[in-house]
Amino acid sequence: MFLGELALPGPLEDESERLWQLGARRVRLPRTIDLADAAHPARAAEAVAALSLVRDLTARAVLVEWDLRLDPAAADVWQTLTHLQPPRRIEGPAGSDEALHTWRRGHYLCKCLWRKGPGFVQIRDRRWGELRRFTADEPHYEHTIERLAYGAPADSVPAAVLDDFRGEQLVLDVGPLAWWLPYRISRWLQESMTI
Question: Residue ranges per domain, the chain?
Fold first, then answer.
């Protein structure tokens, strides 16, 4: 089944569900996600919106065909994105082909996710080879995650919480925006005890 080109009028947090309900199991983004030219707020917002769609579709195990452009000076940024469906191509830094090969070889679902329980949030991160698990029961952490989920100005969230998330590489700075990297799972792909 081919759905053709679809406009995504928003809201952004509903787009992956909309595509899923329409039957999309493979999505191709028409433009390269450009993190090398994200200093301008409008370009940063465009990049964050596209990354959010990739993240949300990855959480649903939808195949996403997308391209990524990185700033040559920030060659290691790709490592923070390895929980996402790998792109078709990485442009910018030297060694991009090797980085892409490593990303494809090491990608699997549920690599970096968060979930909400009664009175807490938990993040499980395996991007660095071992399981890193973080649990926060302070409400301002959950509120900050919700604010950052689709990008927010870095100065609009509590600095201490943002610093904690940056220290654990759970947030990506895209120009003036901070963006929440882990995806929230909508369904377990395996029994939850094995993840």
Answer: 12-194
CA separation, residue 4 to residues 28, 29, 30, 54, 66 (Å): 10, 12, 12, 18, 16
Pair 155, 148: CB distance under 8 Å: no
Please name every residue paired with 51 in a beta bridge, in sequence order, or none if there are none.
none
SS3 sequence, 64-133?
EECEEECCHHHCCHHHHHCCCCCCCEEECCCCHHHHHHHHHHHCCCCCEEEEEECCEEEEEECCCCCCEE
Locate 156 and state its tokens: 């609009």
pLDDT digits (tens, 9 = 90+) for 71-115: 988 878 999 999 999 999 999 888 889 999 999 999 999 999 999
- pLDDT tens for 19-29 read 888 888 889 99
Q: Give residue 93's pLDDT.
A: 82
Start-to-end CA distance of the chain, whole Å, equals 32
